[in-house]
TrEMBL record:
Keywords: Signal. This is Ca-activated chloride channel family protein. It comes from the Bacteria. InterPro entries: CLCR, Uncharacterised_YfbK_N, VWF_A, vWFA_dom_sf, YfbK_C. It comes from Glycomyces artemisiae.
Length: 483
């Protein structure tokens, strides 16, 4: 039975407006210019750095593909917000790996810290035209879920943007999100609050959640005003986190902002240089983006290079998933500096292409270098990477995969691997559909959302996962907008 997809009125209006233009141009472009397509929300920065799309690689020349893991999902969440508001997301803010990471594939969990590893493959659908590639290979990683009663106590330092750009819904989302998070914490957990606008201010020293009234009062008092000195807020936040550092606890800074830094240092590399010592000392970072036109690149790069990850909240619903349903995943660390290396066999593979992960690439010799900063992964998190593969026609395995990490409890290096692909399940269909959707939205695909629709609707009809239903809805919306 085909699903009937309801298209929001805002989308239909935007589509009608786009169709009335004389140019008749497609809603996506192939040059990855970073500009928004017709009907899209405006990019935060039209000159934002664009990473070159991965090209097909001949394994006889380079058999190894190496990258740092990434559990960010902000790109997909922001694209959802843009589409439901009647526009396409800016191309420079679409990352296929974050689309694929936004779904639960039910990977088997390991027994301890570190990862389980899954390797599977199947034929590509007819609509997926990418060179001569005819198969997709999936690498799936999973960390162990930790029950809340087993997690360590936490020291959380909230660094909150209260500049003028955070007025209205944005600051209210922050208030609601933090109130929800504090309500999920234990009495023995501790919280500090730093705010920043033109200058920064320590609103609350590190305080046990048992003194909840003091924490709630600090959150309720948040008001938006002034310019945006993110540098000052991060410096004071990390200084406060360092003063309260406890090796027996998880120590994390949580930055909540639209990313519009305009006073002091405004680039992620300069900010990270100022707080590099505290990052090296074991303080991790979660960046939470809010707003309909936020600087995703800045918040993602801060998270990736600040030993953490990035999320986006369009509403209180996003906070519920991150701060309530997945609390232990958000607060803890199961693996530090995690990286992946896939080794392809030139006898069976003519070429391979990693879909996404362009800004997480590592040199092949960095895989066994434990001094190289890579990715931090929390308990119960999964990582999915996809490769478009052109087989040679020879029988045999296409590739082997290894993941390497540092155990946060012992400091020892761990490694896990898979040498052979297992039978694919429906999760691979979902992962490929999500990543292909992202390729269309960022302008790097030779197919369109209309090409994806039949498979999307069939997958949703066969699934009992509401997230897969929503993916099909979003693809339909994007198709109506001309993507």
């Amino acid at each position: 039975m085909r699903r009937i997809i309801a298209i929001p009125a805002a989308v239909l209006l935007a589509f009608a407006a786009a169709c009335s233009e004389d140019s008749g141009e497609s809603a996506t472009t192939a040059d990855m210019s970073g500009q928004a397509a017709p009907g899209a929300v405006e990019p935060y920065d039209p000159d934002a750095e664009m990473y070159e799309v991965n090209e097909a690689v001949d394994p006889s020349e380079d058999p190894e593909s190496t990258f740092a893991v990434d559990v960010d999902t902000a790109s997909y969440d922001y694209a959802r917000r843009a589409l439901l508001d009647g526009g396409l997301p800016p191309q420079d803010q679409v990352r296929p790996e974050e689309f694929a990471n936004s779904f639960d594939y039910g990977y088997e969990e390991p027994e301890g810290n570190g990862f389980s590893v899954r390797l599977d493959r199947q034929e590509l659908p007819d609509w997926y035209a990418s060179g001569d590639a005819s198969e997709v290979l999936r690498v799936g990683l999973q960390t162990r879920t930790v029950p809340d009663e087993e997690r360590a106590d936490v020291n959380l330092t909230f660094v909150i943007d209260v500049s003028g750009s955070m007025e209205g819904d944005r600051i209210q989302i922050v208030r609601d999100s933090l109130t929800m998070l504090v309500g999920q914490l234990r009495p023995t957990d501790s919280v500090a609050v730093v705010t920043y606008e033109t200058d920064s201010d320590v609103l609350l020293e590190m305080t046990e959640v048992a003194d909840g009234d003091e924490i709630r009062d600090a959150i309720d008092d948040l008001e938006a005003r002034g310019s945006t000195n993110m540098q000052a807020g991060l410096e004071d936040g990390y200084e406060l986190a360092a003063e309260s550092f406890d090796a027996d606890r998880d120590n994390r800074v949580i930055l909540l902002s639209d990313g519009e830094a305009n006073v002091g240092l405004t680039e992620h590399d300069a900010m990270l240089e100022e707080i590099g010592g505290e990052i090296a000392d074991g303080i991790t970072l979660l960046t939470v983006g809010v707003g309909d036109s936020y600087n995703q690149e800045l918040l993602e790069q801060l998270a990736d290079n600040g030993n953490g990850w990035a999320v986006y909240f369009a509403s209180e619903g996003g906070a519920e998933e991150v701060f309530s349903e997945r609390l232990t995943s958000t607060l803890g660390v199961a693996a530090e500096d995690a990286k992946v290396q896939v080794v392809f066999d030139p006898a069976t593979v003519a070429d391979y292409r990693l879909i996404g992960f362009e800004n997480r690439a590592l040199e092949d010799d960095e895989f066994e270098d434990d001094s190289v900063d890579a990715g931090e992964v929390g308990p119960g998190h999964a990582v999915t990477a996809l490769y478009a593969v052109t087989p040679t026609g020879e029988a045999g395995e296409y590739a082997s995969v290894a993941v390497r990490w540092t155990d946060p409890e012992t400091g020892e290096t761990g490694e896990a691997s898979a040498e052979a692909a297992v039978d694919a399940d429906a999760g691979l269909d979902t992962a490929l559909l999500a990543a292909a959707f992202a390729e269309v939205l960022r302008g790097s695909a030779s197919f369109t959302c209309s090409d994806l629709l039949d498979d999307a609707e069939a997958l949703a009809a066969a699934s009992d996962d509401p997230d897969v239903d929503e993916l099909a809805d979003l693809i339909a919306i994007a198709a109506e907008l001309g993507a």
